[in-house]
Design goal:
six-stranded antiparallel β-sheet, four-stranded antiparallel β-sheet
């Protein structure tokens, strides 16, 4: 009935605005990945495309290998090997904050899921919580609230992927239930950028 519809709309609006207040004053549609780019001709710095009334803006002093716009936040990963950092730039307050160190790559979902050495971690958008989700693993994909990964093991001082038959066993971690399950065996490893 009509009251149920109003309650559902209210809950949906508040659910979307919560999540560490990632949407801020402006609606989530205000910012998009299309407005930003990694300038390969200027040391891989993260920049905002020129607009007719504004100069181009640079958001990083260091090289950046990956970024994503989530609500009012520009989330990016610097490209410095083990010294790589996951950063959050608030597009409204124009302040930066380091969220984590030793991050190789990330996927933005209800939390940020990141590769931290040989473990997969969940990082809150405020940076206050970093929780290990899967140890001895390498992320290869994030889709529909699920992380796909390969398990690793150390052999003769080298890190190797877990094999099954003539291929590699892919696992799935459901970010909502916390359950891990076996998926396909693949012969070639394709990593989502």
């Amino acid at each position: 009935d009509y009251n149920d519809k109003l309650v559902n709309e209210y809950q949906q609006q508040h659910r979307n605005k919560n999540a560490n207040d990632i949407y801020g004053e402006n609606a989530e549609s205000t910012y998009s990945d299309d407005e930003f780019y990694i300038d390969t001709k200027d040391g891989n710095k993260l920049k905002q495309a020129k607009k007719s009334d504004k100069e181009e803006k640079c958001y990083s002093t260091e090289a950046v290998k990956q970024f994503s716009v989530v609500g009012k936040y520009l989330i990016y990963c610097t490209d410095k090997g083990k010294d790589s950092k996951l950063m959050r730039y608030d597009l409204e307050s124009q302040k930066s904050k380091k969220l984590a160190e030793n991050i190789q790559k990330f996927y933005a979902g209800q939390e940020i899921y990141a590769q931290n050495g040989t473990q997969i971690v969940a990082i809150s958008y405020d940076g206050k919580n970093i929780i290990s989700k899967v140890k001895a693993a390498v992320m290869i994909k994030y889709k529909a609230k699920k992380i796909y990964f390969l398990k690793t093991k150390e052999e003769d001082g080298l890190l190797k992927f877990e094999k099954k038959g003539k291929g590699y066993q892919v696992y799935e971690y459901d970010t909502e239930t916390g359950k891990e399950s076996e998926k396909d065996v693949v012969k070639k490893i394709e990593v989502q950028e």
